[in-house]
Amino acid sequence: MSSQQSPSNSHGANDSTTRGATDVVDEHGHGHSVAAWAGVAVCLVGFLILCLAIVFPSLTWGIIGGVVIVASLAVAGGLAKAGYGVKKADGTPVGVGRAQH
Which has more pLDDT, 93 or 47? Predict the structure, then answer.
């Protein structure tokens, strides 16, 4: 018995584990889409408004900030349905028409 590991497995990860993690990342796209970025941008604006409403006490601006944050979900969802969401390599949206287990 040798205490040395083979060069292919020197870091403790086997090929099937590495491939499996890559497949999951590729399948879900990690949110790199116009819909995801637009949703995050609108949400950040909402949080900015909400933060300013806390620093300069204003219930009206606090409500507006909250509405903008909730609207970011509608923006992201609407853009995703319009075709700007994450897509598979063949161009079909991720999560549409998938077989349920």
Answer: 47
Angle at 30 between CA 25 and CA 31, to 5 degrees: 155
Per the CB < 8 A criterion, the answer to whether 65 and 8 are in contact is no
Identify the H or E element spanning 78. Answer: helix 59-79
- DSSP alpha helices (H): ranges in 29-58? 34-55
Position 47 scores a pLDDT of 96
Please determine, for residue 92, whether its predicted confidence score (pLDDT) is greater than 70: no
Cβ count near 16 (within 10 Å): 8
Q: Which residues pair with 93 in a beta bridge?
A: 87
The predicted model gives 2-17 an average pLDDT of 51
66-69 contacts at long range (C-beta below 8 A, 24 or more positions apart) = 68/42, 68/43, 69/43
Cβ count near 92 (within 10 Å): 11
Q: What is the pTM of this model?
A: 0.60
